[in-house]
Amino acid sequence: MKVYIVGAKRTPIGSFMGSLKNKSASELGSVAIQAALESAKVTGHQIDEVIMGHVLSAGQGQGPARQASLGAGLPDSVVAHSVNMVCGSGMKAMINGYAQIQTGLAKIIVAGGMESMSQAPYLLPKETRSGLKMGERSLIDSLIVDGLTDSHYHYHMGLTAEQLAEEFVISREEQDNYAFHSQQKAIAAVDDKAFVREIAPVRVSVRGKEEWFSEDEYPNRKTSLEKLARLRPAFKNDGNVTAGNASGINDGASAVVLASDSVVEQEQLTPLVEIIGIGQSGVDPLRMGLGPVKAIESALAMAKLSLSDIDYLEINEAFSSQSIAVLKELSAQHAVSEESLLKKTNIKGGAIALGHPIGASGSRILVTLIHILREKNAKYGVASLCIGGGMGIAMVVKNTNFLTEH
């Protein structure tokens, strides 16, 4: 059985405490779900289930995915659940939906991811519930603990990026150059309205007035290589990872509509891409940034393709050093030049410039990839992410509208 994506939309990405700060993850998810359904020309009554990636769920209320589903206007009869695979959550949600359709448990599924990092709460220590006797206690930042810190080694994700910078001898200059080019690509894409087809605007309140927020706000137009070079290391005194060459802390959501080949034919839906390969990997948590390497290899094997067959890649930019290390490893293992890989990877910028709402990025990069393949009349694409805790996840898709003669 073939599984197609027939709708793919995302919200614009908001900066931390920016335009989307007052929107919960589920509210953002509702916007993405509703837009994906509309673009697919599918009604809520046709959906079997909603699966949404979501990481920072503390204090968000019971069943955030269910909240998003009902908020999007889907009927009570449609069930929903959330997936937490850290940065891979949005993609894992799509893979779970793909598997359900493949096994005949469902015919049409909405899958994606959502996150409001701005609304991640501070927590009281665990012993507070049983009673504190005396002494001071500190608040716990759920954003840092649940989203950005490895629970095995208790390392912040930034230290894993420093690990790869040392292992692969990636200089500060290389990292800043990579980050700057990501910013340049993203700003060019925003200015060229290259994201318009994939973005679903969000209604926000600005100084008491309702406005449409419709453009990614995180790209930094004021940055330069000189400014990046002046930033201090963020995670270790003698390190190279800074706020400028790391991904952002952001808010946003994205969603796709998955459908079986039989439903596509019966309902006369328009497929955008076919999912032809999926892959996952586990690595040492200290080297979590290399997770995409094995995951991409597995996904390509399932698709019966080589890396040289792939026209465009979206590899989530957790950090410059991490992204460069992945490209180096892919180049070495697949006998493809780093330069050629770089030219077809994240052509509209990546998470360093656009932002990284962790529960949403797994589906966001695929939404962007789908639109790139359609716009460029390209046949094959790969989307992949590294995952906190030492994992990787990847998906290969085929453009169903690919024309051999353009």
UniProtKB/TrEMBL annotation:
Residues 3-261 form the Thiolase N-terminal domain. The keyword Acyltransferase applies. The active site is at C87 (acyl-thioester intermediate), H356 (proton acceptor), C386 (proton acceptor). Keywords: Acyltransferase, Transferase. GO terms for molecular function: acetyl-CoA C-acetyltransferase activity. The keyword Ribonucleoprotein does not apply. Its EC number is 2.3.1.9. Residues 270-398 form the Thiolase C-terminal domain. CDD domains: thiolase (cd00751). InterPro entries: Thiolase, Thiolase-like, Thiolase_acyl_enz_int_AS, Thiolase_AS, Thiolase_C, Thiolase_CS, Thiolase_N. It comes from the Bacteria. It is an enzyme of class 2 (transferase). NCBIfam families: AcCoA-C-Actrans. Belongs to the thiolase-like superfamily. Thiolase family. This is acetyl-CoA C-acetyltransferase. It comes from Vagococcus lutrae LBD1.
